[in-house]
Specification:
Largest sheet: 7 strands, mixed
Shape: globular
Oligomer: single chain
Pathway: Cofactor biosynthesis; (R)-pantothenate biosynthesis; (R)-pantothenate from (R)-pantoate and beta-alanine: step 1/1
Strand order of the largest sheet: 1-4-3-2-5-6-10
GO molecular function: pantoate-beta-alanine ligase activity
Enzyme class: ligase
CATH class of the largest domain: Alpha Beta
Catalytic activity: (R)-pantoate + beta-alanine + ATP = (R)-pantothenate + AMP + diphosphate + H(+)
Protein name: Pantothenate synthetase
C-alpha cells in the first residue's frame, strides 16, 4: 500500500495506475476507522481496480467549541486496517496541503439540500464538507467515490455538488452499518459512557417504531415525527430534530405516500448521535438509487 501525504505524490501514484488502464475508487474518511468505513472500502474494491482512502480531519466542518482538537486521530492503526483490507493508497494530507491559503480561503456551498436537519445546529458544517470533498475529488479524480448513508444529508449534498460542478465521478452509497443492537457505527460512539452506550440503541428503535406506527395507523409525516420524538424522550435521549423528508433529495413532505426517509439527531450526555431510516414505496422518477453521476 502506498502512503502519501501530498497531492503531487498522489498524482504520481495514480498516474501509474491509469497508465495500466486501472479504474479508481475513492473513500473519503476522517480516520479512526471502524467496520462502517471498511464496508465502504469493500464496496470500493467491488467497483474499481484500485482503491484510495483519504484520512483527513477537516477543520472546516467543525464549529467553534466542537471536538476538532479531541477528535480521535489513529493514523497508524488506520494504516494497518487499510493494509489488511487491500487498499492501494492511503492519502493522509496535512491541513496546509488541503488549504494552502488557509481554511476559508475558498469554499463550496450547496443550496436546498443543506437546509434544516443538521444545519440547524451546525450552520457551517455542509460548506466545510462540500469544500473538502470537492478538493479530494479534484485531487484524486476517481471514477467512483463511496459514501455511507448513515450521514444521509451529507450523501445527498455530495450528489448535488457533483451534478452541479459537472464532476466526472460516480457517487456510490453504502447502507448504514450497525451494531447488533441497531446503533449506527460512528467514530464518536467512543465518547459514550457505558451507561449511555446501552441507551444509545434507543435512537434506532425510535425510528423503527415511529415508521411502523405511521404506516399502521395511517399517520402523516408530522405524526411520525412526533412519534419518533416521544420515543426518543422515553428512551432517555435529548432529541434535536426528527423529520420526514423525501428520499434521495430531501424535499419536504407532508404525507407518507412515496419514498421517504425519517432522519433524527439526539444527544446523550455530550455525545451527538444521528441516524435515519428509509421507508415507503420506490419512485423511479427520483434519483434514489445508490449511485449517480
Amino acid at each position: 500500500m502506498h502512503s502519501v501525504h501530498t497531492v503531487a505524490q498522489l498524482h504520481e501514484v495514480l498516474a501509474d495506475f491509469r497508465r495500466a488502464g486501472d479504474r479508481v475508487a475513492l473513500v473519503p474518511t476522517m480516520g479512526n476507522l471502524h467496520a462502517g468505513h471498511l464496508a465502504l472500502v469493500e464496496r470500493a474494491r467491488e467497483l474499481a481496480d484500485r482503491v484510495v482512502v483519504s484520512v483527513f480531519v477537516n477543520p472546516a466542518q467543525f464549529a467553534p467549541g466542537e471536538d476538532f482538537e479531541e477528535y480521535p486521530r489513529t493514523l497508524e492503526a488506520d494504516r494497518e486496517r487499510l493494509l489488511e483490507a487491500g487498499v492501494d493508497v492511503l492519502f493522509a494530507p496535512r491541513t496546509g496541503e488541503m488549504y494552502p491559503d488557509g481554511v476559508g480561503a475558498v469554499t463550496v456551498r450547496v443550496d436546498r439540500v443543506t437546509e434544516g436537519l443538521c444545519s440547524g445546529t451546525r450552520p457551517d458544517f455542509f460548506t466545510g464538507v462540500a469544500t473538502v470533498v470537492t478538493k479530494l475529488l479534484v485531487a484524486a479524480r476517481p471514477d467512483w467515490a463511496v459514501f455511507g448513508k448513515k450521514d444521509y444529508q451529507q450523501w445527498v449534498t455530495v450528489r448535488r455538488l457533483v451534478r452541479n460542478l459537472l464532476l466526472d465521478v460516480e457517487i456510490e452509497a453504502v447502507p448504514v452499518v450497525r451494531e447488533e443492537d441497531g446503533l449506527a457505527l460512528s467514530s464518536r460512539n467512543r465518547y459514550l459512557s457505558s451507561a449511555h452506550r446501552e441507551m444509545a440503541s434507543g435512537l434506532y428503535r425510535a425510528l423503527r417504531t415511529a415508521v411502523r406506527t405511521g404506516e399502521n395507523e395511517n399517520l402523516d409525516a408530522r405524526g411520525v415525527e412526533r412519534e419518533a420524538w416521544t420515543m426518543l424522550e422515553a428512551a432517555g435521549l435529548d432529541p434535536e430534530y426528527t423529520e420526514v423528508r423525501r428520499r434521495g433529495d430531501l424535499e419536504t413532505v407532508t404525507d407518507l405516500q412515496g419514498p421517504r426517509v425519517l432522519l433524527a439527531a439526539a444527544h446523550l450526555g455530550g455525545t451527538r448521535l444521528i441516524d435515519n431510516l428509509e421507508f415507503g414505496s420506490p419512485d423511479r422518477t427520483l434519483e434514489d438509487s445508490g449511485s449517480c453521476r
